[in-house]
């Protein structure tokens, strides 16, 4: 590190310092270890926006298709652009998968994907008394947006695209505060009410017509890295409601169908169908002498 004079002022020039030069060399070397340019979450965001512009034309974009031929043209353009976005994740990870075959399979998945996303929107409308229309759900509900992105990420995850599905899920996480691993299997008509703080682990399995509230965690008990491929997260059967702040852990934990899991409960074991699980609150009436000892605080 040297001291130089510029415009009559002495300044410290860090670029002559050997550790700083090594730092510059390190950045250069790491960049050239992998020549591919991934684009980061910006590319993930563009991918989702471009797809949703088509799937929800008139909602997320001002597209105005005149006939189904124009819809097909829009999808073809999207897939062509998607090829450029996804290719680095295959070549950069030495994947043997063929990008054209992946996109062909993704195109075949679009009808089911579209149907599932619309069923989620309808489930949110029917499950929330405050929702005035399905249109409102699509335009305004963060829980709907998060599950819609997850549906897309899950398809790419099943098609074995490396890394990119996780980037999609993290893009939605950043936007909504809802963290769903792309590996999670989620049935139709899924509704996350309010949504903020929900965490759904990668080996979770959720059946049809499940509703969960903010702050719910479907997580894993602590396991070693060697068990990463083992089912570590719970199974939630159909028609179950899980209220705010509940934590359900473990790959062997099954919540039976038509169950209700109360707020702030903690479960590491299975419960049978039609169960009602709740946290028991203790209420104690203080006597007048205790009032002087009450902690008074403000935030």
UniProtKB/TrEMBL annotation:
Keyword Lipid biosynthesis part of the UniProt annotation: no
Keywords, ordered alphabetically: Acyltransferase, Amino-acid biosynthesis, Transferase
Matching CDD domains: LbH_SAT
GO biological process: amino acid biosynthetic process
GO molecular-function terms, A-Z: acyltransferase activity
Keyword field contains Transmembrane: no
InterPro entries hit by this protein: LbH_SAT, Ser_AcTrfase_N_sf, Serine_acetyltransferase, Trimer_LpxA-like_sf
UniProt-recorded name of the protein: Serine acetyltransferase
Classification lineage: Bacteria, Pseudomonadati, Spirochaetota, Spirochaetia, Leptospirales
